[in-house]
Design goal:
Elements lengths: L17 E11 L1 H5 L7 E9 L6 E3 L5 E2 L1 H4 L10 E2 L10 E5 L5 E9 L7 H7 E7 L10 H7 L4 E5 L7 H8 L3
Parallel strand pairs: 1-5, 7-8, 7-9
Antiparallel strand pairs: 1-2, 3-4, 3-6, 6-8
């Protein structure tokens, strides 16, 4: 994005802007489950989270301000088998994060599947407002053009696993035609 001039003058977040932790525990990922646990569950996984969350504002599907914990997963407990949704955002149909101290004033709409979940903190550090939509569980009535107008969207990101462009995404994109 920066190379294409979309983030001119913005200093990108660096590793030291986040709290890092190496997770060394059994990991039961979605793809491993789908492949009948053919892969090792002993992985060292680097996990990062935003250092300072006190200024961030989180909003649910009703666009009501909620605590971070209602959007962000609860985190790994000692000795627990790690599952994907314990370490990042859940696959919620809609949520919004505002950061008054963001590096860029842009408002960004993210259309995603679960592959985007671990990147949410990065986007929240970078952009002043992110609206995250997972069309697989999106229950609001607004169409894409309505959301763009309502939230003054500057940019849209499609963050999907290569094999997961779902029917729900196509239906969402075709709403309001």
């Amino acid at each position: 994005m920066q190379e294409n001039g979309l983030l001119d003058g913005v200093v990108l977040p660096a590793a030291e802007d986040f709290a890092w932790q190496d997770l060394d525990c059994p990991y039961r990922g979605d793809l491993n489950r789908r492949f009948s646990y053919l892969f090792s569950m002993q992985e060292e996984i680097p996990y990062y989270s935003i250092r300072e969350t006190s200024e961030l504002q989180y909003y649910d599907a009703e666009d009501v301000e909620v605590p971070r914990e209602s959007i962000w997963a609860r985190g790994l407990q000692s000795g627990e088998e790690m599952q994907y949704n314990l370490l990042s955002t859940e696959n919620l149909g809609f949520y919004r994060i505002c950061n008054p101290n963001a590096r860029s004033a842009r408002h960004v709409l993210i259309l995603k599947d679960s592959m985007e979940d671990p990147m949410t903190d990065y986007w929240a550090e970078l952009f002043s407002e992110i609206i995250v939509i997972d069309p697989r569980s999106y229950l609001r009535e607004e169409s894409l053009p309505e959301l763009v107008a309502e939230y003054d969207i500057d940019m849209a990101l499609f963050l999907y696993h290569q094999n997961n462009l779902s029917e729900e995404l196509i239906d969402f994109l075709n709403r309001g035609e």
